Amino acid sequence: MVDGSYKLEKECHIETASSITEKDYDEDHVQLREPPDGGWKAWLVVVGSFCGFFATQGYGYSWGVFFDEYNANVYPNQMTQLSWIGSLWYCLCNITGPFYIYMASKIDDRYMLAVACMLSSLAMMLASITNEVWQLYITQGVMSGVGASLAWFSCMRGPQMWFSKYRGLAVGITMSASGAGGLSFSYIAGACFETIGYRWALRIIGFIQLGLLAVSSVTCWRLNPPRKNIPIVDIQDLKNKKFLVLFFIHLIGNFAFYIPSGFVPSYARHLELDSFMRSNLSAIMSAIMFVGKISVGFAGDYVGRFNMAVICGLMACVAHLAVWATATSAGSMWAFVVLYGIFGGGYIAMITAVITEVVGIDHLESGTGWAFFAWCFGGLLGQPLASAIVESGSDGENYRGAVIFAGCLFFAGACASWILRVIQGGWRVFKKV
Known about the structure:
This protein is mainly α. The protein folds into two domains: 36-232, MFS general substrate transporter like domains (Growth Hormone, Chain: A, Up-down Bundle), CATH 1.20.1250.20; 234-433, MFS general substrate transporter like domains (Growth Hormone, Chain: A), CATH 1.20.1250. Helices cover 79% and strands 0% of the residues. It is built from 18 helices and no strands. The chain has helices at residues 2-28, 40-61, 63-74, 79-92, 100-106, 109-127, 133-162, 167-195, 198-219, 241-257, 259-270, 275-303, 305-323, 330-353, 355-359, 364-373, 375-391, 399-425. Helix 10 (241-257) packs across helix 16 and helix 10 (241-257) runs antiparallel to helix 18 (399-425). The termini are far apart. It is found in: Membrane. One of its GO terms (cellular component) is membrane.
């Protein structure tokens, strides 16, 4: 009798403990599985994330070739109006940042990628039958931008969840897809412009996005169930003074970051370079960014990520003010796209890499969301401001003013990065921070 009572009591205790553990998981967000750091499923998540970045961010990196074609042949002499198409996309591609964690607690990542798949591809198809600039605002701007935002954060989360020791490699492979996509889409669009027209360029890119994002929506599994009791908007990070400096860095950085990708092809036309060269410059800049993000990230592990952010910001400034502002030939433009590809891409990679060190691992997701939300303002206003500067010249082509504007913004970003570096690691110049 005693043994039976003891056994019954023990079973009841085990059942109660099990119930408490499940409750604690729901309320306190206990992670049940550690990152496996490999395996076919984990690497398929990387493949799916790569496809998502290739399809959406690759289009963003190739926007300049569309901008040039529209301004020259489809809607001539409407540069400022046309620049709002890309600006809407650059703004909205990060718009879900502050809300993404809440959304992810309600909807599976793969469902959000399925929505991104339909929205992004439909946007390109509808853009191909438009006849007015305002219609492109809705399709290539708003619809495509929101689709890219849903894909961005879903594809960014996956490799971070499934990898620990090899997280840098997994995330690096994923983010490098933006450069590879920009390279491919620039060539595809340029070839279509010369043969079957811009409408078919949009349709072909739409079909590519449909296929790639379909892969993402199938393979981007979650490692663990979503967290519970997530606030719609978490503002804890905005109480962190260091993060406010980083938020400012991201804010002004995006005012300048997309100006080269938007204006290099049209500036090449201004220099009377041929169409192949115009597409090539944009494509090679994307390819160099592919290399720059990985190589600068690798160097940052040894030199210090905060230090590399300062160095890259200063070098991006030099590339603008000393090279692009004085460029008069194809050779000087080649020099600019190589320098900017390395240091401009490296700058964005470094100010992203330091987010964890500023907010801590526990706030990585919310900190990343807020940091990239800061990109919305520069994405929306950066290119229209640059276009207005270009059109302010007596001949309507004041490119030097727009280049100086971007270069000064990179200098301001480098100074702010130095301030953050001093706050983080002190005044010692040669210290790894």
